[in-house]
Fold this protein.
Amino acid sequence: MKARLTTLSLALSLAIMFCGCTSDKGAVDTPANQPPTITSDSMAEATGGVYFAYHAAYTDPDGRIDSLAFTGVPSWLTVAGDSVFGVPPDGLCDTGFTVIVYDGRAADSLKVTVTMIPCVLVYGDSRTDHVVHQALVDSMLPLKPAAVFHSGDLVADGTIPDQWATFNAITADLRAVADFYPALGNHENQSALFFSNFELPNNEQWYSVDCNKTHFIILNSCVAVDTASEQYQWLVSDLAVIPDSITFTVAVFHHPPYSTGSHTEDERGLRTTWVPLFEQYGVDVVFNGHDHDYERSYCGGIFYVVAGGGGAPLYDQTRQHPCSQLFLKTYHFCKLSMIGDKLIVKVYDQTRHLIDQFEVTATAPR
């Protein structure tokens, strides 16, 4: 039986003894001793809060492996035989470790780079309770997101400059470390102050950005949404040219097509305009606000998430709908982790306590 030596002390000894000695240089090949070769990947991806595992594979023509060891292993990983595994904390920088195999005479080593994929956050309706809004932002900051999306109603009245000053003060640290992409809500009132407060793509009302192999489409449900509208035509053209490199598609806008909160059901009639496009082009998740609650619905193969718990007064559930899976009257934000063929959505309250979780699996390349 081949021995598997996994202790750090022995691994370091092997690294010292065979530093610079690899299978393609420095090893002495004889008919009785063919050096080992590590065949596993030198690159891996991980993301905070999601289980990670790496298996070290190798070949040895004469089957004389005496040991396999890992060196420089981050503290969040556990070594077991020819594998390392663990759950990385959020906000880590890229890391790595080294694999060494030894057959008694020759060794091969491989430096493995682990790229940490940052999360993306979504929240909305932050307009009135500034203490709650600040608590949510304080809970988001340690996650070190790549981007933050807001589902609208950033302030109570978008025409009042002081409210934008308060919003900017609360979100300043977050916006200093992450890209910030807001959707227009009805409380913004199409104000010029909204447009002067942000620098956004396209016409700043509807636009799209790519992040972590995910295509985000931000729309304005407060203006014309019918099939003859400029926005609808832009949406069709955007959905039609999503590149093959994209794994998931996410839409963010204010008024929810599916909700059991206090506002009128499908207030903007989006089930007959945008929703058919989402289903046709394989949108994975839709994030909305407007109703001040958290709700997860699933309809037509798409998750619809009301993420309206950013600080506005919370709403009760007022009706039932067969698509609704979970309704919570609580302040919250959503964390999106994209890794491989998985989009994992975790939902936290203002103390970063997990209140919901679901995931989407990519079905096939676009």
